[in-house]
């Protein structure tokens, strides 16, 4: 540059002042100037109007779920296993009630069986007593028949003695005849006593049969 010429101004500064600055400072100054210009005149991007066809997106294809292996915590897995086991185990309360009802029914059946046995025994006992009474009655009837036959025999004997005459053979004294009559009279008294005894026995047997 000649001495008569003045230095040109760069950004309001003379060439002399510019030469005194280093390169780094100049780079920073240029960047600052470009930044100022960009802020003063911003570049607006053209606004694009999207049609409704671009606004409505088509349904995305349904992706099948992928198998993801997930291992739950140990405590949760144990709890799940316990819940499953608890569901598999039958209700102990229901089974206990069923057993109790079955036991109660068995007790009721045993009680009814015992009552039935007692009733059948009571019914069988009178039958046995009736059989024994019949046997005793038959026995008494046999005894009565025997007594009646004895009474009839005594009656026949009495009639024979009554109709008998004392022998009047020669040589028999009057005292002997009197003794014979006394003996016949005594025999008749014995016969009457026996007959009355047999009659009383027969009456007693008949009274028992009526009872």
UniProtKB/TrEMBL annotation:
Segments forming a coiled coil: 123-157
GO BP annotation list: DNA damage response
Keywords in alphabetical order: Coiled coil
InterPro entries per UniProt: SUV2
Cited PANTHER family: ATR INTERACTING PROTEIN, PROTEIN SENSITIVE TO UV 2
Protein name: Protein dimerizations
Source organism (scientific name): Striga hermonthica
């Amino acid at each position: 540059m000649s001495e008569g010429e003045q230095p040109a101004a760069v950004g309001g500064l003379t060439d002399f002042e510019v030469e005194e600055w280093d390169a780094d400072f100049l780079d920073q100054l240029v960047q600052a100037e470009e930044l100022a210009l960009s802020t003063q005149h911003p570049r607006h991007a053209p606004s694009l109007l999207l049609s409704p066809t671009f606004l409505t997106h088509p349904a995305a294809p349904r992706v099948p779920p992928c198998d993801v292996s997930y291992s739950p915590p140990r405590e949760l897995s144990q709890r799940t296993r316990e819940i499953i086991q608890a569901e598999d185990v039958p209700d102990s309360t229901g089974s206990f009630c069923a057993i109790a009802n079955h036991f109660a029914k068995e007790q009721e059946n045993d009680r009814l069986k015992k009552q039935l046995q007692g009733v059948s025994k009571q019914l069988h006992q009178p039958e046995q007593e009736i059989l024994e009474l019949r046997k005793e009655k038959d026995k008494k009837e046999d005894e009565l028949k025997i007594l009646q036959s004895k009474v009839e025999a005594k009656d026949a004997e009495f009639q024979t003695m009554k109709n008998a005459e004392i022998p009047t053979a020669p040589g028999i004294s009057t005292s002997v005849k009197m003794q014979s009559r006394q003996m016949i009279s005594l025999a008749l008294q014995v016969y009457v006593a026996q007959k009355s005894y047999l009659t009383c026995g027969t009456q007693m047997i008949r009274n028992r049969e009526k009872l």
